[in-house]
Amino acid sequence: DVELRGVSLDLNTANKLKEEYNAKLNICKDKFKEILEPLKDRITSFINSNSTLTKKCKLEWPVNMDSPLQVSELLYKVLGVNSKNGTSTGVKELKVILEKTKNQIVKDIITNLLEYRKIQKLLTTYIEKLPEEINPKTGKIHCNFNQYGTVTGRMSSNSPNLQNIPSKNKEIRKMFTADEGYCLIGSDFSQQEPRL
Q: How many C-beta atoms lie closer than 10 Å to residue 170's C-beta?
């Protein structure tokens, strides 16, 4: 019944959030450029000395924060960050570096990158993606609930997964609306409750 009924999404709220989160991304991009501006000569010098006729340096000016290769070269080769995990730019590794480094520029770069990636993930995974999941016939999102989908016995959902909506982000949850005469409830139940 829940699968067939589906859930309504307020597209006005989704569009408003899309604008807001794109603006937040642009602020992060501007901040990234601002942090790197004092390093421009150092970065361009690195690019020039590491580019030959046969080999092109991955790093460019301005540095593209969406490029893991460029971020990797910036952190590990230009700024000399040391890491046990090679030249990874994954979130886990960036957090480890952030904890250990005393270099303020490295801290600023990583803090900004982590914020940017967090905003980008919310934007692409939920704010932009969920409106695309609306069924054109019903005007609602219909996911599949799996009663035996996990080893622990808890229920799961997919196509799309509506059980991983961030609980701390109240803005994204405001995109979901109840039909007239109905209300939305939030609960965290195990197999016992649905079975009862």
A: 8
